[in-house]
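Subject: for your reference before the review

Hello V.,

The reviewers asked for a structural picture of the protein, and I figured it would be easier to keep everything in one thread rather than splitting it across files. Below is the amino acid sequence we used in the manuscript, unchanged from the supplementary table.
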Amino acid sequence: ALAHQPLQIDVREAEGDPIILSKDPAKLIIDASVTWLAKGHYLISGTYSSDRDLMANGIYVSEFKNGDQLFIAYNSFTDLKNFTEYLSGKRKEKLDKKIEKKKEKGMTDFVEAYVVDHPIFEHNGEYIYIGEVYYPTYRTEYYTTYVGGKPTTQTRRVFDGYQYTHSTVIGMDKNGKKNWDFCFEMWLDYKPFFRKRFIRKVIEKDELRLIFTTGTNFKAMVIKGGERTMKDLGTIEYLDENEKLKYAGNVNTEYWYGNYFLAAGSKRIKEEDKKGKMKKKTVFYLVKIKFD
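And here is what came back from the structure prediction:
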């Protein structure tokens, strides 16, 4: 009921039959994105499941030219470095126990996750995949009903948004074979009620920056010259010097174009009016940000 249904894959040119991505009955295709390389030449990529449930076990990439499938390659989350390191304590402990049991049974494709993926793109002669990992969270609500005139307290489980934990970046050769991978923490303090992409990529010459925010703090994973590092890009300033902050709501940051981002939110402040009295008010703000 939370939009985890697998997609019906029907990717076609202007004319022609639907394209069949995978003929492997052990691989359930969960989602798909198209990257156009030239007219009649494109990649299709996304996530797959090996146990045919709705959590992904890895990613795939397939190349098509003039309607013919040139290859399909699979990269399992099991083979990625530190893929489970950024989960919360209890979730990591539960997953590690599950992994050990599946290892004992001789299984190889056993790490699974909910992932929002980005279309594959080319960078420095490689195909680059970005996937943002999340899990659904729930809270317990108490409510009262009356049975025979007597109040009875009951509980119910309520969906409380998607918690994003980390992201993985995979560099592949032109046949979809993994050259390298890198996982980094992306623990967001904002839990959306729908699946969305938080990371925005900025490509300049030989440098690739993957930018996202945690609250009012901007961070970037930078890929340059074969090195991959995390950088703190600074914090959004949204208070005037005469304002006293009483409450700050969630900051919603969106990529605009080029190196520009927009950040919007609300704040409850206390400031001095013209008569010298301190008054409270709610202010909605919009910030334009440029990264050099």
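For the response letter, the relevant points are probably these. Confidence is low (pLDDT under 50) at residues 1-10. The radius of gyration is 23 Å.

Happy to draft the paragraph if you're swamped.

O.
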